[in-house]
Amino acid sequence: MDDKQTTGLSVVAEAVTVCVQTGRGGNPKTLLKDVSLRIEPGEFICVLGPSGAGKSTLVRAILGEREIAAGQLRVGGHDVLDKADTLRGSIGYVPQQDINPTALPVERALHFASQVRLPAETADHVRLAAIDRALGDVGLESVRSATIGTLSGGEAKRASLAAELLADPGLLVVDEATSSLDPATEARIMMLLAGQARAGTTVLAVTHHLDNVDQANKLLILGHGEVVWFGSRMEALGHFGVHRLADVYLAIEDKAVGYWGDRWRERQAEDRLLAEKGGEGETEAQTEQLKSADESAEAAAALADMSIPGFGRQFTTFFSRELETTLRDSLGLAMALLLPLVLAVVVLIGFSGTRFEKPTMTTRLLDSDEKEVLADVWGEVREAISADTVSELDASIPGQIRVFLDGYPKILGHLREPSTERLVTDALADTIPLAPEREIPDPGGTFKWLSLMSICMVILGFVTGFREIVKERPMLDLERRHGLRFAAYVLAKVTALAGVLAVQVAIFTATVELGFMIREALGGDGPVGLYWRGPLLSGSFNWLAAVACAAIGLIVSASVRSTDKGVLAVPLLIMPQILLGATILPITGGVLKVFATLFSPLYWAHRGSRSEGDGVPDFWQHLGDYDPALWIPFAALTAQIVVATAITILVLRWQERAALGRNRPVR
User: Fold this and answer.
1) pLDDT per residue over 206-237, tens digit each?
2) Considering only Cβ atoms within 10 Å of each terminal Cβ, which end of the chain, N or C, has fewer?
3) Residue 205: its H or E element
4) 244 secondary structure, DSSP code
């Protein structure tokens, strides 16, 4: 590693001030105030300071992710905001969280990282050489085939560092990357960073571990948003009047805001005065040295203006990584394959006692002769049931009817209920069909079964999609810095999820179908073909609905910052689907149908799977008047997938704009 020739980049801050708006109409809060410093190419700088001192803000500013209210901040001679696209690839950033997929071997994770970080025209042998070099730099050659999830904390951190070293950056920024490591591992990481600096890379490491900061060339100590020290460790102890570096934090907190900032500026003024008295020759030599460093930094920055892989290349990379990650995650893959099987068994058990072909009678409106007969008969019956006792009636037909009904008190009670009167009245008025028409298999069992099948797949889609982006958020944010296109990333996610869900829906549908085949072979019955469109079409529409729900889940996953918050949103997504899916409540028209057609994949899955043919009783016709053409639910579900995918992309871009005040430029 020491033989590697890397041209480091300088970092120059001149009176940099960073503010943030505290609220609508509120006064801005100053996070960094008049920060001035110069980091020479190839220096290793440790950034220290109490919580809230401005360390992370300074890092974000150097990365071009914080607007600067005043002053200038340049890396390699380039303004970090105006030339963010030029500096891409020249600045490596290692966040606190590990950034590699834990299911992949180290070498494969770096392979996919190289597809994003290296220029588009990089040849395969150059890419492989970069991977070998990065593994050698961090000392992971012996575990290159090991799965990242099986590595120790220090090895996983070095793997994250290796991913950023692939592009051979001139500036490496490490933000609290050693915070979760034990002292020995942290010491090894700090020695590794020192070695990178000796090889030419400028290294800026934010840390709260103090035991190994002597590996750095200088310490940059911040307090209350100001620079309170920039120099050697030993001189820092004297400046703050303490014996231990940890006591510097107490000294900063014990003094009033601005005290140590003023002391540092006074010391700088004294140093400049001493330099002027030291003679012009020495000052000119120092100036020439700084000029030379600037020129080398400019050259390195110019080399970083690289071509970013296009949309097709990125889509292929992210899609391949997603599938390989899924296939290599043995536990996750087993759960993904087992879940639809368990759901299918539950459905089969739940409908084991259902008689799908139980006969029921359809009804029709009465014709004129039937109405005449019903009116006459009901008139006699009404007279018979209106009397308190049979003694009030004579030997007429009503009296004879009453004698008969007194032997069947339950029938008498039913005939006296107001609902019976309304039923007869509505039948005579052609409001309800009452006359028997023909016997058909009861559609209730089949329709309930179809509803549950679709609901299971919709839930599967939501559960699959809601965590897909949030679990990769550190990696996504980092790769965005290297030119990741949100559209390529999200489309790759949706395509990969569609493949996984296709397998799951196939397992679910095939298992249920096999279960009913066995049941019929043993003399039982199964869903009635008159009321649904067969396993192929039903499975296809359920798959499209599951993909649409997974895409909606991606919107949630892109909107939240933790998986826990995503979990809370899942029930809020599922319940409206069930209510609007025409599985429980009929959706026959009005506002409910508008909402269902626009926002409910379950509605379209149900509509595509179900068949409400002639003769189906009115109370089982949940879809009302509709066109049964198959292309309609297919087009609707496809449109919902496209819209949900587009919204996910827009949410990611909106979040980036909210965080940066702009969208990160991507050529």
Assistant:
1) 988 888 888 999 999 999 999 999 999 899 99
2) C
3) strand 202-206
4) S
Helix (H) or strand (E) holding 196: helix 183-198
304: DSSP letter:
T
Cα dihedral angle (149, 154, 160, 161), rounded to 10 degrees? -160
What count of residues does the chain have?
Answer: 667
CA–CA separation, 214 and 2 (whole Å): 19
What's the gap between Cα 22 and its chain centre?
28
Q: Which residues pair with 17 in a beta bridge?
A: 70
Structure tokens at 68: 């600067």
Same domain flag for 408 and 542:
no
Exposure class string for 161-191: b at 16+ Cβ within 10 A, else e: bbbbbbbbbbbbbbbbbbeebeeebbbbbbe
User: Domain holding 31: CATH number?
Assistant: 3.40.50.300
Is residue 138 situated within a structural domain? no
- Please tell me whether residues 538 and 414 are part of one structural domain: no
Which among 388, 411, 432 is the end of a domain?
A: 432
* pLDDT one-digit tens code per residue, 92-105: 999 888 889 999 99
Instruction: Please indicate, yes or no, whether residues 629 and 507 belong to a single structural domain of this protein.
Output: yes
CA-based end-to-end distance of the chain: 33
DSSP type of residue 105: B
Alpha carbons 240 and 250: distance in angstroms, whole number? 10
Confidence check: pLDDT of 1 > 70: no
Residue 94, by phi and psi: left (phi above 0), alpha (psi -120 to 50) or beta? beta
Query: Residue 557: which of 497, 638, 483, 484 has the closest Cα?
Result: 497
Give the number of domains in the chain.
3
Kind of pairing between the strands at 28-39 and 70-75: unpaired
The residue segments making up the domain with residue 518 are: 311-357+442-660
Residue whose tokens read 């140590």: 260
